[in-house]
C-alpha cells in the first residue's frame, strides 16, 4: 500500500512538472508567435515600399517623357519641368531602394542595371532636344532615329522595372501567406496549449479523486486482509512478531499469544515475558539463539518447546529476517509456527520405516529360503525321479506318464524359483550406477544365451553403444530377458532375427515420452521377426506372472518381462512394447541422460 501511495505522489509530481513545462512552453511559443507575426508584417511593408519606389521611378520617367513630347510639339519650356526634375527625384528613389535592399546582392545588381538604363534614356532625351533647336541645322533622319532609340530604351526600362516588381510581388504573396498563417496559427496554438494545460490539470484532479476513492477501498481491504491474516494464522498455526532494533521493542500478533496458550495481547510483548513459556530444558539454548539474533540482527531457523499453563507441550519453529523501512529504521520480521503435528508425524514415520526395514529383512530371509531351502527338496525330487526313470521298464504305462508329469512340474518349479530370485534382486535398494560399456554387457548377455542362440541359428545385429551410466548387472539381465523372449517366441517358418539399435532422442519429440522428467534419453530398440502379439496386450505383458500363451505351448513363468519393467523403473526410464501378430515384436527401452 505504501509503495502504491509513493507511486501516486510521484505521479502527481510528474503532472506538476508537465503542467509547469507546458505553461513555460505556452509563454515561449506566444512570444515567438508574436515575434513571427511582427516580422511577417514588417516584411510585407518592406515589399510594399520597394514596389512603391519602383513604380515611382517609372512614373517619373513617364512624366519626363510626356513633358519632352509636349515641348517638342509646342516648343513651350514649361513642359520641360518634369524632365529637368526627374533626375533628382529618381536619384532619391534609388537611394531609398539601395537602403531597402542592402542585404540582397541580386537586387542591388538589378538596381545597378536599371540605373544604367535610366541614364541612357535621359541622355537620349538630351540628344533629341539638341536636334530640335531651330537655330541649328535640323537633321530629320537623325532626329527620328533618336526618338525610336528613346522609345526602345523606355520599353526596356519599363520591362526591367516590371520584372523587378513581378519578383517582388511573388515575394509579397509568399510573405502575405506567411503573415496570414502566423495570424491564424498564433491564436490557435495559444488556445491549444491552454486547453492542453487545463486538460492536464483536470487529469490531475480526476487522478486525485480516483486515488482518494482507491485509498478508501484500500483501507477497507487492509482491514479485511488483517482479519484474513489473523484467521490464516489460526488455521496454519503460526504467529508473527517484529523487533524494532533501534527502540528494542517487540510486537506480537494475536495468534502468537494463542501458540503460548494465552489470550491475544494478554501480556506485554517482551523477551522476558516470552521466555517464561519456554521449556526449562530449552531455555539455555533459546537464550543463546536470541543473543545471536540481537547481535547479528538475523534469526535462522530455531526449534524449541513451550509449556502451556495447563501442562501441554508444544514444539515451535521460528525464523526472522531483517529489513530497513522507508524511515531508515532497522526491523527484524519473524514467524513462529507450531510444528507439534509435524514432530508427531515424523516419529510415526520413523516407526513405519523401522517396520519396513524389518519387513525387508524378512523378505531377504525368504529369498534365502527360496534359493536354498526350497531348491534342496526339488533337487531330491529330481534325483529320485531320475532313479525311477532308470527302472522305467518295471513301471506301468500310467506310472511312466505320472513320472513324466512330476518331472515337468519340478522343472517348472525350479524355473519359477530362479525367476522369483531374479525379480527380487531387481527390487533391491543397493543400486550402484556406473559408467558402463554397454557393448560388453550385450556380449555378456549373448554368452549367457549362447547355447540357445546356437541351437536356433539366431542372427543378432546390434549398433555400437556409447558409455551409459547404469546398474551393470541389471542391464545385462535386461538384455538376457528381452533377447531370450524373442528367441522363445520365434516363428516356426523363419530363422530368428533380432535387430538392436541405439539413438539419442529429445523427450519433447517422442510420443512415448510424454511423461518424461529428463530432456534427453537413450533409446534402445529390440526388433524381432517372431510370432508377435496383439497390441491390446502391450501393457499386460509387463505384469508379474502374466502370460499370453498356453504353458504347454511356450514354456516360462511370466516373470521375465516384469523384471525388464522393474529394471527400467530402477533407472528412472521407460519400456514400451509393440506387436504385429505373425510378423514380430518390438521392445523399446528409454534410459535418461543425466
UniProtKB/TrEMBL annotation:
Pfam families: CHASE3, HATPase_c, HisKA, PAS_3
Catalysis performed (reactions): ATP + protein L-histidine = ADP + protein N-phospho-L-histidine
An annotated Gene Ontology molecular function: phosphorelay sensor kinase activity
Ranges for domain Histidine kinase: 369-594
E.C. number(s) listed in UniProt: 2.7.13.3
Transmembrane feature ranges: 184-206
Domain PAS: 246-297
Highest taxon listed in the record's lineage: Bacteria
Recorded coiled-coil stretches: 346-398
SMART domains in UniProt: HATPase_c, HisKA, PAC
Gene3D superfamilies reported for this sequence: 1.10.287.130, Histidine kinase-like ATPase, C-terminal domain (3.30.565.10), PAS domain (3.30.450.20)
CDD domains assigned to the protein according to its UniProt record, in alphabetical order: HisKA (cd00082), HK9-like_sensor (cd19410), PAS (cd00130)
Annotated keywords: Coiled coil, Kinase, Membrane, Phosphoprotein, Transferase, Transmembrane, Transmembrane helix
InterPro entries for this protein: CHASE3, HATPase_C_sf, HATPase_dom, His_kinase_dom, HisK_dim/P_dom, HisK_dim/P_sf, PAC, PAS
The protein, known as: histidine kinase
Amino acid at each position: 500500500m505504501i509503495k502504491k501511495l509513493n507511486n501516486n505522489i510521484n505521479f502527481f509530481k510528474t503532472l506538476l512538472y508537465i503542467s509547469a513545462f507546458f505553461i513555460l512552453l505556452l509563454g515561449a511559443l506566444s512570444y515567438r508567435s508574436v515575434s513571427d507575426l511582427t516580422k511577417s508584417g514588417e516584411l510585407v511593408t518592406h515589399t510594399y515600399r520597394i514596389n512603391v519606389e519602383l513604380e515611382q521611378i517609372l512614373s517619373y520617367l513617364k512624366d519626363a517623357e510626356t513633358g519632352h513630347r509636349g515641348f517638342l510639339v509646342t516648343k513651350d519650356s514649361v513642359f520641360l519641368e518634369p524632365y529637368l526634375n526627374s533626375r533628382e527625384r529618381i536619384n532619391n528613389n534609388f537611394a531609398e531602394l539601395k537602403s531597402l535592399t542592402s542585404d540582397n546582392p541580386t537586387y542591388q545588381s538589378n538596381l545597378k542595371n536599371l540605373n544604367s538604363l535610366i541614364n541612357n534614356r535621359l541622355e537620349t532625351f538630351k540628344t533629341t532636344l539638341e536636334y530640335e533647336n531651330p537655330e541649328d541645322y535640323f537633321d530629320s533622319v537623325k532626329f527620328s532615329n533618336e526618338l525610336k532609340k528613346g522609345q526602345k530604351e523606355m520599353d526596356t526600362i519599363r520591362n526591367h522595372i516590371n520584372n523587378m516588381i513581378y519578383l517582388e510581388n511573388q515575394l509579397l504573396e509568399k510573405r502575405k501567406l506567411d503573415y496570414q498563417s502566423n495570424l491564424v496559427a498564433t491564436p490557435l496554438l495559444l488556445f491549444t496549449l491552454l486547453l492542453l494545460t487545463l486538460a492536464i490539470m483536470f487529469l490531475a484532479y480526476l487522478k486525485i479523486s480516483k486515488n482518494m476513492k482507491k485509498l478508501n477501498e484500500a483501507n477497507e481491504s487492509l482491514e479485511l486482509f488483517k482479519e484474513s491474516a489473523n484467521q490464516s494464522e489460526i488455521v496454519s498455526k503460526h504467529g508473527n512478531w517484529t523487533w524494532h532494533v533501534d527502540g528494542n521493542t517487540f510486537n506480537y500478533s494475536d495468534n502468537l499469544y494463542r501458540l503460548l496458550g494465552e489470550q491475544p495481547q494478554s501480556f506485554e510483548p517482551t523477551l522476558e515475558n516470552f521466555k517464561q513459556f519456554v521449556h526449562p530444558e530449552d531455555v539455555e539454548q533459546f537464550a543463546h539463539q536470541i543473543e545471536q539474533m540481537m547481535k547479528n540482527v538475523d534469526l535462522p531457523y530455531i526449534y524449541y518447546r513451550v509449556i502451556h499453563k495447563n501442562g501441554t507441550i508444544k514444539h515451535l519453529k521460528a525464523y526472522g529476517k531483517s529489513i530497513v523501512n522507508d524511515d531508515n529504521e532497522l526491523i527484524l520480521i519473524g514467524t513462529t509456527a507450531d510444528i507439534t503435528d509435524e514432530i508427531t508425524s515424523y516419529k510415526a514415520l520413523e516407526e513405519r520405516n523401522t517396520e519396513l526395514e524389518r519387513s525387508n529383512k524378512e523378505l531377504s530371509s525368504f529369498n534365502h529360503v527360496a534359493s536354498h531351502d526350497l531348491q534342496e527338496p526339488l533337487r531330491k525330487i529330481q534325483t529320485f525321479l531320475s532313479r525311477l526313470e532308470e527302472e522305467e521298464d518295471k513301471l506301468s504305462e500310467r506310472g511312466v506318464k505320472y513320472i513324466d508329469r512330476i518331472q515337468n512340474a519340478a522343472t517348472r518349479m525350479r524355473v519359477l524359483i530362479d525367476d522369483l530370485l531374479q525379480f527380487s534382486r531387481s527390487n533391491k535398494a543397493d543400486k550402484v550406477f556406473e559408467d558402463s560399456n554397454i557393448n560388453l554387457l550385450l556380449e555378456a548377455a549373448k554368452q549367457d544365451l549362447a547355447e540357445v542362440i546356437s541351437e536356433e541359428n539366431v542372427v543378432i545385429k546390434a549398433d555400437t553403444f556409447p558409455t551409459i551410466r547404469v546398474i551393470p548387472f541389471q542391464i545385462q539381465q535386461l538384455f538376457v530377458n528381452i533377447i531370450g523372449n524373442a528367441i522363445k517366441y520365434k516363428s516356426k517358418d523363419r530363422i530368428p532375427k533380432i535387430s538392436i539399435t541405439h539413438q539419442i532422442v529429445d523427450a519433447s519429440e517422442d510420443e512415448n515420452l510424454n511423461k518424461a522428467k529428463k530432456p534427453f534419453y537413450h533409446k534402445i530398440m529390440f526388433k524381432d521377426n517372431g510370432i508377435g502379439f496383439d497390441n491390446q496386450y502391450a501393457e499386460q505383458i509387463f505384469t508379474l506372472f502374466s502370460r499370453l500363451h498356453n504353458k504347454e505351448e511356450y514354456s516360462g513363468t511370466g516373470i521375465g518381462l516384469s523384471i525388464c519393467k522393474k529394471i527400467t523403473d530402477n533407472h528412472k526410464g521407460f519400456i514400451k512394447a509393440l506387436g504385429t501378430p505373425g510378423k514380430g515384436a518390438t521392445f523399446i527401452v528409454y534410459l535418461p541422460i543425466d
